[in-house]
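Data deposition worksheet. Section B asks for the primary sequence of the deposited chain exactly as it was used as input, without tags or linkers unless they were present during the calculation. Section C holds the resulting structure in token form. Section D is free text for depositor observations; keep each observation to a single sentence. Incomplete worksheets are returned to the depositor.
Section A, Depositor: J.P.
Section B:
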Amino acid sequence: MELKVLNLKGEDTGRTVHLHDDVFAIVPNTHALYLEVKQYLAAQRQGTAKSKERSEITGSTKKLKKQKGSGSARYGDIKSPIFKGGGRIFGPKPRDYSFKLNKNLKRLAKKSVLSLKMTEEKINVLENFSFEAPKTKEFISILGNIGIANQKSLFVINDLNKNVYLSSRNLPKTKVKPHSEISSYDLVNAGHIVIMEDALEKFQENLMK
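Section C:
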């Protein structure tokens, strides 16, 4: 599979890059994709919710009234869960929501997203570029030139380029990430995926291991 390389003006450079069918043209596995997105979102949870149980409440342990003969329900001390300010029954405790997935499944999930995006024609390859200083206006002009201004987009670059990253940081719908840090959630969340020319080969190699 071949894909045209665009320049910063959104024009065809006359060059093409080879896309491996094993990465960009597989039958999507939606369950693998679901699992990796679920893992990513679970890892974002702090898991710090905590409520005090009966044994953790400060208060007297004196029995408030005799067990029998009052005509009402029996209960013990003021820390009982039936009273306001008492302990909570089965309340939340700190926990780790993360879980593990094997590498092959995670690669399959990424390839599934890329294949779906490819059929929707939402993947572009852009020639390499850099800025001498952070320039958000120039970055916005590039987005406009390739037809994705004001749309969610993900730029996949070879190595973290500080000035390119800083130029895009104030754009809420655009993310710039090195190919080694891309997750399936990033790919799904992006409306359009723009892969830098020098990052494409390594990006593909990592998914074909």
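Section D:
The chain has two domains: 2-46+101-208, 51-91.
The chain has seven helices and six strands.
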